[in-house]
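Q: Give me the 3D complex with manganese (II) ion.
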Amino acid sequence: MSAIAVISDLHLGRRGPADSFRHDDADFLRFLDFLEGNFASVVLLGDVWETLRCRRPRAQAAELGVVRSVHPEIAARFRQPPYHYIHGNHDLVSAVVDRAPDYWATTVGKTHLYFTHGHAYDWHWQRARWLGELGSWAGGWLLRMRMRAVFKTFDKIDNRVRGARSEPERCAFQRWAVGVARSREADVIVTGHTHIGVRAEHGDKLFLNSGSCSQGEFQYLALEPSQGTFALHTTW
Ligand SMILES: [Mn+2]
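A: Here is the predicted complex, encoded as structure tokens.
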């Protein structure tokens, strides 16, 4: 069994209005049972933990401890095989705390696969990381103050700036990802980050996005490179 599952963007938080996970942990553990039973590896492709919505800014390490203690069974599962954890931008602090990597490259048969969350594309990540982190922190407060409409407006602007679209030919994020695939000599580039699940061919490169398991969604990728199967699922 060489099949690989990919999930990302769970945004597991403290619960309450600023937590966008919106699953019952018991339900989500059943989904994890299903993945563990059917796949040799399960890639956790970043933004697993929500540490940017801490109450005080720049308290991400403490927040990581808190959100893991709020979801203890899920946290314990994710520390063991078959999980491969790659951090994103909302759980960047785990690069320091857990030495989580920012990519995973593997070869199955003749297929080279490259996994990375995708925040390295964002202009504010490259030029003003504090601005993106401040935005997420402020977003958490908007949600705590029940200002969901204001939050959604900012969230829309953020997505527009990011340039992610579901149509491959119009998607700047996909163009960036395909460039990463070329420079890393990968056949398949797998990202998360945009919360838009996608499977799109770009010439000899395949772009995959694992979508999101936040907001009560169960999106995952099922990769069986030996059979040439790369599928996005939105139910299980
Ligand atoms: Mn992200």
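A quick observation: The beta strands are 4-7, 41-45, 83-86, 104-108, 111-115, 188-191, 198-202, 205-209, 220-224, 229-233.
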